[in-house]
User: Fold this.
Amino acid sequence: MTKRTFAQINYNPCFQFGAHQAAEIDYSTVMSIHGDHINEVHNIPIEELIQPFHSSIDESKVKSLMQTIQDHIDDVPPIDVIWIKGRLGGNYYYCFGGCHRLEAHKRLIKGTIRAKLIKANIAALKVFLGSSTPDLK
Assistant:
């Protein structure tokens, strides 16, 4: 089992990871490099998620997730959502992963999805979107 502190991990410093104290990470249990240290889970309205990139969907994964969501939703890890406050205070929720979980929720006509919010800023968003980054208000 490999354990490291946040100081030893190469992560994007534009993301705000809360307390800046070193935390030991057990990589055998890490579900997400961005949200694993976040305990709070929110129910985010699916219609508010911005998904700038669409991945190829593996139908068997989606069907399996749909069954698990119906039977034991707590067994499905929350997705990571990048939360950005616009310059005029608007909330923007970007989803760059979790495409199979999101698709399963959509097909089940769920209004919300469990998510860990990762507070970020426009500079962090530009890492992903480059010159396509919109003017967030």
